[in-house]
Known about the structure:
Elements: H1 8-42, E1 52-54, E2 56-72, E3 75-79, E4 84-89, E5 96-97, E6 102-106, H2 109-145, H3 150-182, E7 185-187, E8 192-196, E9 204-205, E10 216-221, E11 226-233, H4 234-237, E12 245-250, E13 257-265, E14 270-271, E15 278-286, E16 298-315, E17 320-321, E18 327-333, E19 336-341, E20 343-347, E21 351-356, E22 363-365, E23 408-409
Antiparallel strand pairs: 1-22, 2-11, 2-16, 3-10, 4-6, 4-9, 5-8, 6-7, 8-10, 11-15, 12-13, 12-16, 13-15, 14-15, 16-21, 17-18, 17-23, 18-19, 20-21
Amino acid sequence: MSDPRKPRWIKRTVKLVITLVVLAALGWGGRWGWQKLSPGLFGSRRVEKMPTSKTRIASISEEIIAVGRVRAVFSTELRSEINGRIVKIVAVDGQAVKKDDEILRLDQTDILTQLQEAERSIEAAKLRAERAKADFARQKALRDSGLITAKDFDEARITFSLAENDNRIFEARAANLRDKLTKTIIRAPHNGTLLLRDLTEGQVITGAAAQNGGMLLGEVADLSVLMVRTNINEIDVARLKVSDAARVRVDSIRSMIVNGTIKRISTSATDSSVDRTRIFPVDVVLENATDRIRPGMSATVFVTLAHVENALTLPLAGVFSTAEAVRYVFVAKGERFEVREIEAGIADNRRVQVLSGLEDNEEVALTRPLEFDGEIPAGAQPVVPTKPKGAAGGPSLGPPGGGRSRGRGN
C-alpha cells in the first residue's frame, strides 16, 4: 500500500521517470528492429569501390588500324556500252582469258534489221545521186549553149548536191550501226582472270550511258598481285608515307597475317559515308598472297608507327587531360588519392606509355573521383583527396584548383 504521507510531487516524478524509461526502451528496440529488417525490405546501401590499376613494364606499339577489301592491283570492270538482252554467255567465272576473247553476246536482231534498212537507203541514195548527176551534166551543157536559164541550172546543181549529201548521211548511219553491232559482243580488255557476276541468258542489261553508269557485268583482273584498298582519316594519314610496311589480316582467314607495303596514298580527300570525317583512300599491296585470298574479301590493315620494349605503361582510362593538354593521374595513397602530373608517350588501343611522373607498380584510379569537379591546371600543387571509409561513391576532395569542366581520359 502506498504511503499517503508521501508528497504528491514525488509520485509524479516516479511516474515520469518510468514513462521515459519505457519510451527509451521502445525507441531503442524499434531502431534495432528497423536495422535488422530494412536491408531485407529495401536492400542494403551500395558501397562503390574506386576501380584502380597498377603500372607495369610491357611492350607497346602505336598502330593505325583500318578495314578495307581485297582487290586486284590491275583490273578492268566489264560494262556494256549499249542496252541489250544477253543471248549467249561464252566464258565462265574464274576462267583465264586473253585479250579480245569473247565473254558474252547481246541480241543483234534489231541492230541487224536497222543496218539492212540503212544499206537499202544507201543504195537508193546512190541511184538518186547518179540520176541527179546526169541531169546536172545535161543542164550544164544546155547552159553552155544558152538554151536554159541560170535558174534552171542552179536547181539542177542543188538537186545533185542534196542527193550526194543524203548518200553521206545514210552511210554515216550505217557506219554507226556497224559499230553498235560490234558492241553487242563483250570481249576481254586484256589478259587476266574473269570475275563474272551472276548473269543468265535472256537477262536484259543497261548500258554505260544510263544514269547509274550501267550494269556491272564483272571484271577482268590480274590476280598475281593483290592489294587492300582502305580509307584513313585525315589525322592519321599525315603520319603515313608511301613504302611504309603494313600487316594485313584477312577476316575470313584470321590465322593468316600477310605482309604488305603502302603503294599509294590519295592526294585528295573524300567525305566518309559513315560520319562527317574526311578520309583518304590508301592502297596496300600484299606480298606473297596465296590462292586462299580472293578479291572482295574483307581485310584489316595494321600499320605500326612506333614500338617500345620494356616501357612503363598504364591503362588509357587512368590518364586525364586538362584544356591545356596537361596529362595527370590519381595515384592511390592508402585510402587517399594524390593528383600527379605525368608525361605520356606512345599509346595503343589499351595502354599508354609513361615517360615520367610514375614508377613501376604504382596504383592509379581508372575513373575520376566523383566529388572532384574541375581540372588540374598546369603548375598547380597536387590535390590530396580523402576517401571516407564505408562511404558510397568516390573519395572526398578538397576545393578544385581549376575550372569547372571535367578532364577526359585519353
